[in-house]
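Troubleshooting entry. Yesterday's outputs looked truncated, so today I'm pasting the complete records for two proteins to confirm everything comes through intact. If either block looks cut off, that's the bug. Protein one:
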Amino acid sequence: MTKKLNEIKRLIKKECFTLGFVDDWFYSTHLLGVEKFAKELLKKCPNANAEVVFLGVWLHDLQRIRGIKGDHAKMSAGEAEKVMSQFDYPKDVIIHVKQIILSHSCERVMPKTVEGKILASADAMSHYVADFYLTIAVTGQRDLAEFKKWALEKLDRDYQKKIFFAFARKMIEQRHRILKDVFTMK
């Protein structure tokens, strides 16, 4: 990682801890999980621009980290542009990173570049490790039946729509089956 990228990573870690985003859960579980899977995916995609991917990893959830209301991907992309501009990234890099952030949720826009597909896949894969679903369940935003319905839909959306590489789906295939079984138990 470049010096600038390491500084951004430190900035995001500080913001996660300063803003009290579920203590250190978001940083240590989600962001480090996305980074871990991005590294694995980059090994199989050697022509991808790793700097762009890792900027996407650390900046794709700025809207959530900073507690900004509004469209998740759009607000995160805007905040990412501000951060990258502060670190004097070239305009073409800023545009590319904004594009992969705008498409990482695979909702309105699908990733068009390998870097975008890596970010979307790594983000989805991170949901299959640690206590992602348990942490969301204990927020109490949904009753148990609603939560199970949401979790099953998210599992399928992540697995079918957001993981763009067959080898990546294979990496989490067993976890996908087990989590589906858990959420369909009565």
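Protein two, checking that the full record survives here as well:
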Amino acid sequence: MPRTCSVCRHPERGAIDCALAALTPLRVIAGRYGLTRSAVGRHFDDHLPAQVRATQAAQAEGQALDVLQQLKAINAAALAVLKDARDHGDGDLVLRAVDRVQRQIELQAKLLGELDERPQVNLLVSPEWTTVRTAILAALAPYPPARVAVAERLSALEAL
């Protein structure tokens, strides 16, 4: 016989459903009402009324749209300041406005995932790789066929 949902049986189910609809993290709800995070998650997935989930999705979308709208407003303000500074010949303000516009473009690119600032490491030119490669090939010196096979494979990998 299937178990009954511990959240559905909970005396404060209404409050739990409201907390879920308000985008409260599952772990917070679970701790507050003495439930497990997985039980709250299953309840959300299987038993939370569809209209509550739809409201939650709309809230999340609205918050995402607000960020985009705010970013556009800030961009517009920075560009307006830049235009006014150019019109009035204020070189110092022009440079500060250009800097602000550049930072806004950078922020927008980061938010949209178009700017990847993770470090790029080329192992093939690192001294450590050269040391490892030399050590491998030296260890294989007594085994010429294996040394040739490994050298060919390493060269193929390095060519990628």
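Both blocks look complete. Sanity check on protein two: Residues 123-159 form one domain.
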